[in-house]
Design a protein that fits this description.
The chain is mainly α and 238 residues long. It folds into 2 domains: 91 residues, no CATH class; 125 residues, Up-down Bundle (de novo design (two linked rop proteins)). It contains 7 helices and 2 strands. The protein has a two-stranded antiparallel sheet with strand order 1-2. A hairpin with a 7-residue loop joins strand 1 and strand 2. Helix 3 runs antiparallel to helix 6. It is rod-shaped and about 125 Å long. The model has no long low-confidence stretch (mean pLDDT 80).
Length: 238
């Protein structure tokens, strides 16, 4: 049964069958042939140009039939669109909701990571600067001969806090910040070890509080560089 037969039965005179096989060049044409078992045979023919296809179709249809066909087609299209809209509305609503929730979760995760990193930066910057200050004060007091057990306890507390903040930051901060913090850590750890040897009377050759204070100055540009990289990562403009 031809594919268009049910539509032809339903629409009657409003049914129009249009077949376009090409828009230029050579194509295959069906030629009526009563002697052929199918009632036609195929042969090569010049295809109409693309610009002429629509014109040929519509000019061969009576105006009234075109109008009826247009109204019928519009009704069919409207019906199809209505059905599709009814069927797809829940799917689209569900998809939209899922997408919104995914975007909200992603935004929330981004905010959480940002706040976690900002807190780590703040803690590491504070602990680094505090340890640096305590080392400087300790060396001054050693040089002046007034270094006490309370001073030792305060330096050790600052060192442990710095160590903990440094260890925590290693788990969440980017490599650029870690690189800057390692450079700073090398200076602070070396000065801390020197200060302990001086305090215990085990200073090495050329080690003194005055020399350690000079060496400690190398930490200042490292502190500044680390803070700058942190601020840049947080999007803070100078």
């Amino acid at each position: 049964m031809p594919l268009g037969h049910p539509l032809a039965q339903e629409l009657g005179a409003d049914y129009v069958s249009v077949a376009l096989t090409s828009g230029g060049g050579r194509t295959v044409a069906n030629v009526p042939d009563p002697a052929h078992p199918a009632g036609m045979h195929q042969s090569a023919a010049d295809a109409p140009s693309r610009d002429g296809l629509t014109r040929q179709v519509w000019t061969r249809l009576p105006a009234a039939r075109v109008a009826r066909m247009g109204a019928t087609t519009a009704a069919m299209v409207t019906a199809v669109v209505g059905v599709l809209g009814t069927l797809l509305a829940p799917v689209i609503a569900t998809w939209t909701t899922k997408r919104q929730r995914a975007e909200e979760r992603q935004a929330e995760e981004g905010r959480r990571v940002f706040e976690e990193r900002r807190a780590a930066y703040g803690a590491m910057n504070r602990a680094s600067r505090h340890f640096h200050t305590m080392l400087k004060d300790a060396l001054h007091r050693m040089r002046d001969g007034v270094y006490t057990d309370d001073d030792r306890a305060q330096v050790e507390e600052a060192r442990r806090d710095y160590r903990d903040r440094y260890a925590e930051a290693q788990m969440i901060v980017p490599e650029a910040v870690l690189r800057a913090s390692r450079e700073l850590n090398v200076v602070l750890a070396a000065i801390d070890a020197t200060a302990k040897r001086i305090d215990r009377g085990l200073a090495r050759e050329r080690e003194s509080a005055d020399q350690a204070l000079i060496d400690l100055k190398a930490a200042e540009p490292a502190l500044t560089a680390m803070r700058r990289i942190m601020r840049e990562d947080l999007g803070v403009a100078d």
